[in-house]
């Protein structure tokens, strides 16, 4: 009464199990209690952060969601999923991205309303400056949102970070960062549930969250051994999503140009059997030849890993907008491609999925790749 404590509603889901003793290691599974119902998810997010954001949510009217440059499926999925939830709470919400994103993500509800900073900087700056709360999703430092970073950093708005990358910088009052979680979309789902609003997740919200989870794990083929991922999927399915159609929307909408580009890239792939590694490259000239559009090379870096005994794959692509090389790294097993990204390509990420950049030529990027193979050879050959 007058103390202002956040009020949580029951997180009742169709698959909640009451009064049943389940024998599982407590480290793997803790019961997160809300009123009279238990949801079978570990309490990953600190309660203090949940309480803090709940107070903000109660008072805020205008909210902005921002995500990283060259947004991928998790960036767009987590941002739109969060936006749908906030709109269900009668908030004015805008999603702003630094630049364009792939066409195969535009089917998601709300994608057409996303504001591009590179196209409408004045409008975006006004929204960012006037926001009550800014939600920073799927990135860990302001440089990851490119030219938008200055506006976000200088905004008087309260800021919350919702992310899953290593070593987050201290630019938000609330930091919810869990690198062991496979996607930012999963973190968004967990936060909504911890706030007590599972029942308010719509089909559209669930579709976006599932898309982010699916794309950031390569269709649940890496970083996806946590049993709780599949419990979350079951809950999203209970919201009426069609996961098979979502897969088709994302992966079965390729152009003829993309397929021919894929064949070209694989034809010119370099394999390094002595290092159990493979490299694929893509120049600006090649992109022009195959009528490249944003997103056409999505997933290319994963393909070499389908070869027997290859545990490390790198994709070097000349950026079409900046004088730089985009670096994507993937691995299997325990090989730490995030260490390679950090030490040689100024990037980082997760154990099996990372990225970086080289502000130089393709030849310079190739030399860095070869130097990385030599340094990491013992780990590459470890079985």
Q: How many structural domains does the protein architecture include?
A: 2
Would you tell me the overall average pLDDT? 90
**CATH-assigned fold name of the largest domain:** inorganic pyrophosphatase (n-terminal core)
- Residue fraction in strands: 15-25%
Keywords:
383 residues; inorganic pyrophosphatase (n-terminal core); six-stranded mixed sheet; globular; disordered N terminus
Secondary-structure blueprint:
Blueprint: E1 32-34, E2 37-39, H1 47-59, E3 62-67, H2 73-88, E4 92-97, E5 115-116, H3 121-130, E6 133-137, H4 148-154, E7 158-163, E8 174-177, H5 184-195, H6 203-215, H7 227-237, H8 243-251, H9 256-267, E9 270-272, E10 277-282, H10 284-289, E11 312-318, E12 325-331, H11 337-345, E13 348-349, E14 353-358, H12 362-381
Parallel strand pairs: 3-4, 3-6, 4-5, 6-7, 7-8, 10-11
Antiparallel strand pairs: 1-2, 9-10, 11-12, 12-14, 13-14
Helix pairs in contact: 2-5, 2-6, 3-4, 5-6, 6-8, 11-12
Describe this structure in words.
With 383 residues, this protein is of the alpha/beta class. It has 2 domains: 32-250, inorganic pyrophosphatase (n-terminal core) (Alpha-Beta Complex), CATH 3.90.1640.10; 256-381, Diaminopimelate Epimerase, Chain A, domain 1, CATH 3.10.310. The chain is 36% helix and 17% strand. It contains 12 helices and 14 strands. It has helices at 47-59, 73-88, 121-130, 148-154, 184-195, 203-215, 227-237, 243-251, 256-267, 284-289, 337-345, 362-381, and strands at 32-34, 37-39, 62-67, 92-97, 115-116, 133-137, 158-163, 174-177, 270-272, 277-282, 312-318, 325-331, 348-349, 353-358. The protein has a 6-stranded parallel beta sheet with strand order 5-4-3-6-7-8, with helices on both faces. A 6-stranded mixed beta sheet has the order 9-10-11-12-14-13. A hairpin with a 2-residue loop joins strand 1 (32-34) and strand 2 (37-39). The longest helix has 20 residues, at 362-381. Mean pLDDT is 90; it is low at 1-38.
């Amino acid at each position: 009464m007058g103390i202002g404590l956040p009020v949580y509603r029951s997180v009742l889901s169709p698959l909640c199990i009451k009064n049943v003793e389940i024998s599982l290691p407590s480290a793997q599974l803790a019961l997160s209690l809300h009123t009279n119902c238990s949801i079978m998810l570990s309490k990953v997010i600190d309660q203090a952060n949940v309480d803090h954001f709940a107070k903000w949510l109660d008072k805020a009217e205008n909210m902005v969601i921002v995500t990283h440059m060259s947004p991928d499926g998790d960036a767009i999925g987590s941002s739109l999923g969060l936006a749908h939830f906030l709109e269900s709470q009668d908030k004015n919400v805008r999603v702003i991205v630094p630049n364009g994103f792939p066409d195969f993500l535009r089917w998601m509800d709300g994608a057409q309303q996303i504001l591009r900073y590179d196209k409408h900087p004045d409008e975006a700056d006004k929204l960012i400056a006037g926001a009550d709360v800014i939600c920073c999703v799927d990135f860990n430092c302001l440089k990851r949102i490119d030219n938008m970073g200055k506006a976000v950093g200088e905004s008087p708005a309260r800021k919350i970070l919702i992310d899953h990358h290593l070593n987050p910088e201290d630019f938000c009052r609330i930091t919810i960062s869990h690198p062991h979680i496979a996607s930012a979309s999963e973190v968004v789902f967990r936060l909504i549930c911890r706030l007590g609003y599972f029942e308010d997740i719509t089909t559209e919200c669930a579709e976006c969250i599932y898309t982010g989870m699916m794309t950031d794990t390569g269709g649940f083929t890496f970083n996806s051994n946590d049993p709780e991922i599949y419990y979350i999927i079951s809950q999203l399915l209970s919201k009426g999503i069609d996961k098979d159609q979502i897969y088709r929307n994302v992966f079965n909408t390729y152009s003829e140009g993309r397929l021919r580009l894929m064949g070209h890239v694989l034809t010119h792939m370099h394999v390094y059997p002595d290092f159990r590694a493979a490299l694929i490259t893509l120049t600006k000239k090649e992109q022009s030849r195959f009528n490249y559009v944003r997103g056409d090379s999505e997933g290319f870096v994963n393909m070499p890993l389908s070869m027997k005994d290859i545990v490390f794959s790198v994709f070097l692509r000349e950026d079409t907008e900046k004088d730089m090389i985009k670096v994507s790294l993937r691995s299997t097993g325990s090989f730490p491609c995030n260490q390679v990204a950090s030490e040689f390509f100024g990037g980082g990420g997760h154990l099996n999925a990372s990225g970086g950049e080289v502000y130089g030529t393709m030849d310079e990027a190739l030399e860095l790749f070869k130097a990385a193979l030599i340094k990491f050879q013992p780990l590459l050959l470890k079985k």
